[in-house]
Amino acid sequence: MALVKIADLYPNYKEDLFGGDDIKNFSVYDYANDKIGSVYDIIVDETGRFRYLVIDTGFWIFGKKVLLPVGRASIDYSDKRVYASGLTKEQAENLPEYDENMTIDYDYEEKVRMVYRGVEYDKNSSTYAESSQSYSYDKEPNLYAYQESDGRESLKLYEERLVANKERFRAGTVTLGKRVETETANVSVPIEKERVVIERSSPSDVREVAPGEASFNDSEVARLEVYEESADIEKKAFVREEVSVRKEVDREIVSAEETVRREELQVETEGEVVVNRDL
Fold first, then answer.
1. Is the N or C terminus of the chain more exposed, i.e. has fewer CB atoms within 10 Å?
2. Is 23 in a helix, a strand, or coil?
3. Contact present, 23 and 82 (Cβ < 8 Å)
4. 1 closest CA partner among 141, 135, 98
5. Is 39 within 8 Å of 55 (Cβ atoms)?
6. Residues in CB range of 57: below 8 A, 6 or more apart
7. Tens digits of per-residue pLDDT, 227-244?
8. What is the DSSP string of 186-241?
């Protein structure tokens, strides 16, 4: 049966299991009232049953972390303490060290159990070969059954709650790019061309010129410069449009409705029994 850290199976274990409390960092004492470390983590099986407390031994054994079966632990919530039954310094030194990145397999668990049983671990024994296939935590209640203390019996009342979580996923991708399109463009520009117009006319009043006024010279010319315009058309690039991209968040409330159950205490008495009820 796979074993995991409590937060992996119950992300909201503080509220769901302990009513807002957290036994992590509770101090761990032996029954001689000597402090031997603190609770580092809780190990549960895939059904959610508590199997081990991870104890950080601190200066007791130079920061070594070891597993304490829940049957050897008694929790005092008022004083925020855990009392470890039968865990000696010699046992803690002989226990295999726990690493939070490790996988707890049957071989590792059996090494832990052998220390608490007071038996030397032997993987090649027939006991190991048989139990590795059929082992049940219920066979060793002294290791895995919850301890009751001070003669008190407890009954846990459970209730179901709707727990809302959010999961973020990628809905899609928007990609902006450019492509080149071609088209035929037309442009018109007016141009001017000068032309020479020669007009010949006869005077309406023919008169005689004075002697010497007329000069007959075949080298006399009239010069006139003629201009014209030509079209100079070229292509130039201009910024036509700017495009920017950004994200906006739209928020909405998603509601869910479900039937939840809650356990209520029911007290039945038989005979003349006085019951003090703490309501």
1. C
2. coil
3. yes
4. 135
5. yes
6. 36, 37, 63, 64, 65, 66, 92
7. 998 888 888 898 888 988
8. -------B----------SS--PPPTTT----TT--------B-------------
> Which residue range(s) make up the domain with 28?
3-144
Q: Using N-to-C axis directions, what is the helix angle for 106-117 and 126-134, rounded to 10°? A: 120
Query: Model-level pTM?
Result: 0.51
Q: Which two tokens stand for residue 118?
A: 């007071």
pLDDT digits (tens, 9 = 90+) for 82-132: 999 888 888 888 999 999 899 999 999 999 999 988 866 555 555 555 566
Query: Is the Cβ–Cβ distance between 89 and 37 less than 8 Å?
Result: no
Distance CA 55, CA 26 (A): 10
Cα–Cα dist 123/107, whole Å: 8
**What CATH number corresponds to the domain at position 72?**
3.90.50.10
Is residue 132 domain-resident? yes
Element (H, E) at 83: strand 81-84
Closest Cα partner for 111 from 98, 120, 101, 102?
Answer: 120
Token pair belonging to 51: 């199997």
**How far apart are the C-alpha atoms of 43 and 67, rounded to whole Å?**
9
Classify residue 81: in a domain, yes or no.
yes
In the numeric block, the tokens 């066979």 are attached to 139
Q: What is the pLDDT confidence band of residue 39, given thresholds at 50, 70 and 90?
A: very high
Let me know if residue 71 belongs to a domain: yes
In the chain, the amino acid numbered 58 is: G
Closest CA to 39 of 18, 50, 53: 53
User: What does the pLDDT read at residue 277?
Assistant: 61
Token pair for 243 = 């495009």
Burial of 114 (0-12, 13-18, 19+ CB in 10 A): middle
